[in-house]
Structure to design on (483 residues):
């Protein structure tokens, strides 16, 4: 799984990526020097939990993909069933481009899980 | 430009200006700005952009138009500066390019260039100032102690490298005043007075500060943490609240009349708008009572998104798209501290949903 994340991080504008469980346990991570593994895992886990709870309260199924856009960057969460792929990018990358790369990485990780 | 080209350009601008005046909205002004850029009248574009941004604070289409205008204005300088970095690199070349990127709001590039400059020429203060300015801008927007601390540390490093930079020292003194670090501000003012003893502005500020009580602590972390706490406790009053948030917080009934427009979104189910403190301002369909429970849930999701963005160091949360397994969507947008949430069924499409919400914000909320 590590090499999929490393490959994803080589895309211009990607600051780091991680596969994390809903409880915040890190399955695999490849983060830039600005990002700390524990912090990203904790924040991601909190975001995932609040979102899932919120969506359930609104009568919706859990999210497949969540894309957050902020003034200085983006965060994308993809539900992998066994965990979540979390990707942090800079603003210079267009959202469409980010999603193509992230979905491709998610597909590879899912394929890997199936083989295991 | 010849007189004929000039005449034609002016005529086109006038036509665009009339069109913008007919139905004044951020989008109409951004079209006018684009027309000015197209005919090469960047001075008029700048004037219109500044006027529009003051009138419609935080508008996305105006911000984007402004960026396009600055990019057009700086295009030649950017090219020349990139060449300089490539052919004759030096500390000032990196600094100049970083400043240009900052002006064009390509902040990632600005940060990268300034960092590269620091790595290669650590004894030049300019690149520290660029990084500090970007961080300080973020501190002003998000009011987070960690941003303030990083900005100040970078400014201080720049001061260590050049102890006679008036602009830098005065700016740092002003920052210390703003966060309540009186003693530190006085230190910086005294440093300026060593090389500019008669400076009236500095003397006046020094006098004002000397009349105030000394800072409770001299520990910067403590001072900034205290500042962050005060900002949070003020319920957002320390944060800049634009006209839009003020207007609709005072008159939520106006919002209630407009929100129904969102019904044209295919698969539309519900829309809720929350105020700067998370209070329900409007909901559709149904009245406030019916929407209150949904609003409470959405408030938690908004809070988590805002917190997640700030703690991940990507600054202020702007938009969030939740694509659910059942094909439905939840779209969150923050506009000038108003929080807009739209729920759609699986009949909706992401692009259409985003476009319609954008139109609602730019054509309905701002008008």
């Amino acid at each position: 799984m590590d090499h999929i994340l490393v490959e994803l991080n080589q895309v211009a504008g990607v600051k780091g990526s991680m596969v994390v469980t809903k409880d915040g346990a890190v399955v695999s991570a490849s983060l830039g020097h600005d990002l700390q593994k524990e912090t990203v895992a904790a924040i991601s886990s909190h975001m995932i939990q609040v979102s899932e709870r919120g969506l359930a309260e609104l009568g919706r199924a859990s999210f497949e993909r969540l894309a957050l856009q902020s003034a200085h960057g983006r965060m994308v969460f993809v539900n992998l069933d066994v965990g979540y792929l979390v990707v942090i990018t800079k603003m210079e990358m267009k959202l469409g481009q980010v999603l193509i790369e992230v979905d491709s990485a998610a597909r590879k990780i899912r394929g890997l899980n199936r083989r295991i | 430009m010849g007189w004929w080209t000039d005449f034609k350009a002016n005529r086109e601008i006038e036509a665009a200006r009339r069109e913008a005046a007919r139905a004044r909205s951020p989008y109409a002004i951004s079209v006018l700005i684009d027309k000015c850029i197209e005919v090469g009248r960047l001075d008029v574009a700048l004037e219109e952009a500044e006027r529009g941004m003051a009138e419609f604070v935080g508008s996305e289409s105006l911000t984007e138009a402004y960026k396009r205008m600055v990019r057009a204005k700086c295009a030649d300088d950017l090219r020349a500066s990139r060449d300089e970095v490539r052919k004759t690199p030096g500390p000032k070349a990196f600094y100049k390019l970083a400043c240009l990127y900052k002006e064009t709001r390509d902040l990632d590039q600005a940060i990268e260039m300034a960092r590269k400059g620091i790595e290669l020429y650590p004894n030049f203060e300019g690149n520290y100032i660029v990084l500090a300015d970007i961080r300080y801008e973020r501190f002003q927007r998000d009011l987070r102690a960690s941003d303030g601390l990083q900005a100040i540390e970078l400014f201080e490093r720049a001061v260590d490298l050049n102890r006679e930079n008036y602009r830098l020292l005065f700016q740092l003194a002003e920052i210390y005043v703003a966060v309540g670090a009186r003693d530190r501000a006085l230190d910086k003012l005294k440093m300026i007075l060593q090389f500019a003893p008669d400076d009236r502005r500095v003397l006046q500020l020094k006098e004002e500060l000397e009349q105030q009580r000394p800072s409770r602590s001299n520990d910067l972390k403590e001072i900034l943490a205290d500042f962050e706490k005060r900002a949070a406790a003020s319920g957002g009053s320390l944060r800049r609240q634009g006209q839009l948030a003020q207007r609709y917080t005072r008159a939520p009934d106006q919002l209630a009349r407009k929100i129904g427009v969102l019904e044209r979104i295919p698969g539309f189910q519900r829309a809720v708008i929350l105020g700067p403190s998370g209070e329900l301002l409007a909901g559709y369909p149904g009245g406030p009572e019916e929407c209150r429970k949904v609003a409470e849930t959405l408030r938690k999701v908004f809070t988590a998104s805002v917190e997640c963005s700030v703690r991940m160091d990507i600054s202020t949360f702007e938009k969030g798209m939740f694509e659910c397994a059942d094909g439905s969507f939840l779209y969150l947008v923050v506009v000038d501290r108003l929080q807009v949430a739209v729920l759609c069924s699986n009949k909706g499409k992401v692009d259409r949903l985003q476009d319609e919400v954008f139109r609602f914000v730019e054509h309905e909320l701002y008008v």
Notes: Residues 37-57 of chain A form the longest helix (21 residues).
